Every structure is written in C-alpha cells, then in structure tokens.
Amino acid sequence: MERLQDLFIGIAGMIGAGKSTLATRLGELLDLPVYYEPVKDNDYLADFYRDTAKYAFATQIYLLNRRFQQHQEIIWRGGGGVQDRTIYEDAVFAKMLVKLNLMEERDYNTYVSLFRHMSNFMCRPSVIVYLDVSPERSMDRIRMRSRDVESGISLEYLQALYAEYELFIADISRTVPVIRIDYDRFHSAEEMAEVIEREYLHSNFVREVTWTPTTG
Predict the structure, then answer these.
(1) Which is catalytic among the residues 6, 43, 51, 84?
(2) pLDDT, position 3
C-alpha cells in the first residue's frame, strides 16, 4: 500500500492560507523535500504589484517556468515531495487578471496554450490538500505578515479569487484527489498528516475533513 512518504503532495489555497507553513512541517515530519512558491527570489513580484497590467503576463510566465522546473526536479529525484502551491493554481490567478482587465485576452490564451503543452511533461500530484480559508481570514493573514508587495490587495479581490478557487477545486478533483481542510481547526502537523493519509488511501474525490482530538 502506498504510504504518505512516497506521495507527491500539492498544497493549494488562497493567499495567506498557511501553505508554506504546512509544507515545511509536513516535509520535516515525513522527511520529504519541499518545493516552495517563488516569492523572495521572484524577479517580477514587486513590479507586478506596482504596475500589474504591465507585468501580469511576464509574471505569470515566470511562475509557470519556475513551477515547471519544480515538477521536473520531482520527476528526476524520484520518490515523494511537498509543493507549496501547485502549478495548476497559476491559471486561477491568470483568469482573475483577465476578468479585472489587467491582462489581455490574447496573453491569457498564450499562457493557457503554453501550459497545456508543458502539462504533457508534468507529473500530477498524488493528492492536493486544499486549505480552505475565507477571503476575510485571508485578508487578516495578509495584514499580519505585512509584506510590502501585498499591501495593495483588497478584500474584493480576495472574494473574487475565492470564487475562482471554488471552481478550480471542483474541476481539478476530476483528475487529482483533493482533500479540503479548514487549517484553523487543526492543532499540529501530525494531525494533518494522519488525516491526509487516511483520506488519500480511502478516497479519490473531494472530501471535507475534520479532526477530533483524542488528547487535551
């Protein structure tokens, strides 16, 4: 039987959902390599938030390239891994940019076409863990971590993004097992790992899971 230590686990969720924290702790707990979302070393991020319309397409291509590199590394290394935000989620943000008139339709179509060609060379995650965080909670966490580049993010944007995430999860679950989790209801990575393993080994569809502590 396949164990969690052999799985490619994708951590998905809104901005500020706690993906990096969970990815780090699961990596330590399961002795798995962790592949982080490119933020600190993102050459475009500051310009993207300063002039989104100008840098939207370049930023999306940059992120697609970086995450594709992560997928290739997972294939080359063999074994499992934990990825902080999946490559599939980038399309959610790209679609949002088009809806907000911050990316041209032709650029979006080029992005989607490139992604489809690259997907032929990608390994799918064994399971996607979706950290379900409300737009309001996401806004609170963004304010708490106080990243300068995120200072312009509005609640309205996060509400629209959350609606797109719901559509994304419904769609991706047709091909990749998805476990939906309210991260605030868990107390430790050990609890999270136990639930992920249990749900993955017994289901292949969207599941909303809860945790009942056995100790105080």
Answers:
(1) 84
(2) 61
